[in-house]
Amino acid sequence: MTQKQPIHVIGGGLAGSEAAWQIATAGVSVVIHEMRPDKMTDAHKTDAFAELVCSNSFRSDDWETSAIGLLHEEMRRAGSLILAAADRHKLPAGGALAVDRDGFAVEVTERLRTHPLVTIERGEIAGLPPAEWDSVIVATGPLTSPALSTAVQALTGEDDLAFFDAIAPVVHRESIDMSVAWAQSRYDKAGPAGTGADYLNCPMTKQEYEAFIAALLAGEKTSFKEWEASTPYFDGCLPIEVMAERGPETLRFGPMKPVGLSDPHKGGARPYAVVQLRQDNALGSLWNMVGFQTKLKHAEQARIFRMIPGLAGAEFARLGGLHRNTFLNSPKLLDRTLRLRAEPRLRFAGQITGVEGYVESAAIGLLAGRLAAAERQGIACAPPPATTALGALIGHITGGHILVEEGDAAEPRARSFQPMNINYGLLPPAPALERDGSGKRIKGKDKTRAKRRAVSMRALADIETWLGRATAPSAAAE
Ligand SMILES: Cc1cc2nc3c(=O)[nH]c(=O)nc-3n(C[C@H](O)[C@H](O)[C@H](O)COP(=O)(O)OP(=O)(O)OC[C@H]3O[C@@H](n4cnc5c(N)ncnc54)[C@H](O)[C@@H]3O)c2cc1C
């Protein structure tokens, strides 16, 4: 039998390490190309694989009621190297999975270095990979080297590879008070895919608006890292607090303008100012605050945004931020198995696909590795179902997010897709217990826990089925 060509993985970070491990575990040879230590990024300090560049926490490890904990558990069941090393080097941290970063990175590096099917090549891939590499996973992260990102950008087009993120908060739909907010598009315009009632509008009186502006100005902000400050990203996506600093009326003539909107709770009157939310995912469970990218600290965001009428009880699936980042407009560019439509020999994994966080990056690496290995072996392998955390995450980046290509006056940026952590809003609801053992109706926090638990239980059952099914041989890989 002729030896099959190896799969090439570019980047030995969280995603690349996991992808390579999954490929080798499937019995396929793999070459990892890592540029460190020859060339460092602005954030990495060592030459180790899977270096954690900032916090040492993988967040909550509770699979029953935390979406990130559920993702941990699914990854463990899928034989994740990142989770195995984290479990081995965990530190006391309450309900969170925190790790000894050095021990963790050494473990990942050694497990890969000593695997007979893994070859490690140090050095930058400074352009598109050679044409003879027929299966490549690009997992070069938020700080992809400029030579490679420029080459990728030539394939994707300038607008579809971003060098910073401008994240507006995303709210769980069920936490928006519809006795205050209402659904309406400006001037009731239906547009190409709408109904004329596509936005949720939260109205403000003059007094509420002024108090809100004052809170934005006083709110505590995060600062840029030195190497981020020079990133030229301000065009078209100013943080709201910077807009507020330019004058008290700037937001009322920008994202908070009330024109074309009439409040049905106030007899159809036009509000003084308005905050609009737009549907973010196909399920309709997540809504993003249009034009509300911000560098306010997270606790401040939650406090200040709950001042907005209709959002007093808002639960945030994601809070806002602005960072140096490199990520693709994945819903447009990638197929459902993470291959670049324009050049299918290239698969993408990790933060560059538009997921956010160590674990999410590793999770997409896990899927990219399995999908690439199955393809190499001629085994049919569809991504996991949307009822699992792994499936919901890949689904979000390859189709679950609703793409808004055309910006409007309030949000001139052409791109709506921004990085996302795993959260329950990405998974469809599951039937949950409504009464406890004594027949009493379950309410409040207990009800939320019961709903999450039902989703998690279903996810684990479904991931088990997928793991079994994923190895079934068939004639053609997708
Ligand atoms: C400053 C900063 C702080 C962050 N803090 C956190 C945090 O606290 N918690 C959290 O959950 N997430 C954090 N993130 C987000 C994200 O989870 C991490 O960046 C994570 O490491 C992403 O994993 P990855 O595998 O996609 O990329 P990385 O882990 O960055 O791996 C990419 C690898 O590719 C290599 N590489 C790049 N270009 C090339 C090339 N051309 N050729 C060969 N190799 C190349 C890099 O050297 C690197 O090793 C942070 C991100 C940044 C930038």
Question: How would you characterize the overall build of this protein?
Answer:
By secondary structure, this protein is an alpha+beta fold. The protein has helices at residues 14-25, 67-77, 81-88, 101-113, 146-156, 206-218, 240-245, 298-305, 330-333, 358-377, 389-400, 444-469; strands at residues 7-10, 30-34, 57-60, 90-91, 96-99, 118-122, 136-138, 161-167, 170-172, 182-183, 199-204, 273-279, 286-289, 316-318, 321-328, 339-340, 343-348. Residues 10-16, 33-36, 41, 43-44, 53-55, 124-125, 139-145, 148, 350-352, 357-358, 361 line the site of flavin-adenine dinucleotide.
Q: How do you describe this structure in short?
A:
By secondary structure, the protein is an alpha+beta fold. The chain has helices at 14-25, 67-77, 81-88, 101-113, 146-156, 206-218, 240-245, 298-305, 330-333, 358-377, 389-400, 444-469; strands at residues 7-10, 30-34, 57-60, 90-91, 96-99, 118-122, 136-138, 161-167, 170-172, 182-183, 199-204, 273-279, 286-289, 316-318, 321-328, 339-340, 343-348. It has a six-stranded mixed beta sheet with strand order 6-2-1-7-17-16, with helices on one face. It has a six-stranded antiparallel beta sheet with strand order 10-11-12-13-9-14. A three-stranded antiparallel beta sheet has the order 3-5-4.
Total helical segments: 12
The helix-strand sequence is EHEEHHEEHEEHEEEEHHEEHEEHEEHHH
Nearest-integer average pLDDT:
91
Proportion of beta-strand residues: 15-25%
Low-confidence stretches: 406-414, 471-478
Which strand order does the major sheet show?
A: 6-2-1-7-17-16
Describe the main β-sheet briefly: 6 strands, mixed
Question: How many individual β-strands?
Answer: 17
